[in-house]
Amino acid sequence: MFDGRAVVIVGAGASCDFGLPTGAELYGHILKDACRCVADYESREFGPVEFARLEGHGAFWEKPLPYLLNTELHARHGGPLQFGDGYKKALGGKVARIRKLIGTLETSTAETIDEFLTLNPSHVDLCRLLLAQRFYRLTHEHRNAALHPKSYVSRFAASGERNWIHLFINAFKTNFVRGRRPAGIIDIISFNYDPILKRVLTECFDGSENSIGPWTNYFRLFQPYGCFDLPDAPSSPEKTIRSWASCLKVIGRDVVCDSAVQLSVGQADYIYAAGFNFARDNCKLIELERRNQMIFYVNYDGNPGLDDRVSRYSDVAKPFRGTQSEGMTVARAIGLGLVGELPA
User: Fold this and answer.
1) pLDDT by position in tens, the chain (length 344)
2) Counting C-beta atoms within 10 Å of the first and last residue's C-beta, which end of the chain has fewer, N or C?
3) Burial class (CB in 10 A: 0-12, 13-18, 19+), 331
4) Whole-Å CA distances, 264 to 41, 65, 99, 141
5) Are strands 6-10 and 270-274 parallel, antiparallel or unpaired?
6) 6-21+151-335 architecture in CATH?
7) Per-residue H/E/C for the chain
8) How far is residue 231's CA from residue 150's CA, in Å, rounded to a whole number?
9) For strand 140-143 and strand 146-149, is the pairing parallel, antiparallel, or unpaired?
């Protein structure tokens, strides 16, 4: 990061150590959550009557989508509804939309949820809600009758691997205190919805006595698909989830890449990629083109398809490659020098 102008690109694979899914895994989660909601609606043990009775954080944790549908119906009508023909009709209409989504998800050839939404814009709003509730559950825990946001600043991630963002910070600061300076502000482009990278940089970058100032003095973070703001304290799930859903963007519809990012990518001498699969649409969005820039990238399981995709953009790329039996995590790649020397 100190030998020339640099850009860092982060994809979904970089959040896997923190317990979050890849784009392909997220597709399966969304389908499962939608199917579970319809099964609850059709169940003799649960059914529409029980939808109307869902209240409290515990109810959300057990039945997230039915809970959200119920609270939306209550809010739309100015308060709690009695179970009757009006409620049944409104709820039935919402479940019909979910059934239609399930049918489209099950027959779609899309590999990721992002690709699915690009191809099926009529399902965007419902999928945004499903995405937001899934990420809320993944980033919170239910204890003491409240929903608490998880902390991601610890030394080790949920997978047991070393927190790779700690190692990234160490690599930068080690070189900095030895007198090396970056060529300019380093742009970080994250294609993830989650705020983990920003949270850890904010809380840990300037967390020692040997301070070099806040991370924003050296980096700019862009998240073209939008970003959730993780609460600092227990929060109302319905309000937070609907706020998160409104933040999500879909490529080809409302994703716009900052021209400063595109300029930065075009002028970079070095590109460092972690958990990023070099999908054509994402590369086009940031205007990554064949300029023979030096690309350092993580290939988790040695996938030759990823190597081929990287070769579209550079003949001078260096992979940090794992195998099917032993994956190359981002933490291990940084330990091997992905972004520079770590302290001995």
Assistant:
1) 888 999 999 999 999 999 999 888 899 999 999 999 999 988 877 777 777 778 888 888 999 999 898 888 776 654 445 556 677 888 889 999 999 999 999 999 998 888 898 899 999 999 999 999 999 999 999 888 889 999 999 999 988 999 999 999 999 998 888 898 999 999 999 999 999 999 999 999 987 777 889 999 999 999 999 898 888 887 788 889 999 999 888 876 777 788 889 999 999 999 999 999 999 989 999 999 988 899 999 999 999 999 999 999 998 999 999 999 999 999 999 999 999 777 65
2) C
3) buried
4) 50, 41, 44, 38
5) parallel
6) 3-Layer(aba) Sandwich (3.40)
7) CCCCCEEEEECHHHHHHHCCCCHHHHHHHHHHHHHHHHHHHHCCCCHHHHHCCCCHHHHHHHCHHHHHHHHHHHHHCCCCCCCCHHHHHHHHHHHHHHHHHHHHHHHCCCCCHHHHHHHCHHHHHHHHHHHHHHHHHHHEEEECCEEEECCCCCCECCCCCECHHHHHHHHHHHHHHCCCCCCCCEEEEECCCCCHHHHHHHHHCCCCCCCCCCHHHCEEEECCCCCCCCCCCCCCHHHHHHHHHHHCCCCCCCCCCCHHHHHHHHHCCEEEEECCCCCHHHHHHCCCCCCCCEEEEEECCCCHHHHHHHHCCCCCEEEEECCCCCCCCHHHHHHCCCCCCCCC
8) 9
9) antiparallel
Residue that is written with structure tokens 């649409």 in the block = 281
Retrieve residue 332's tokens: 């291990």
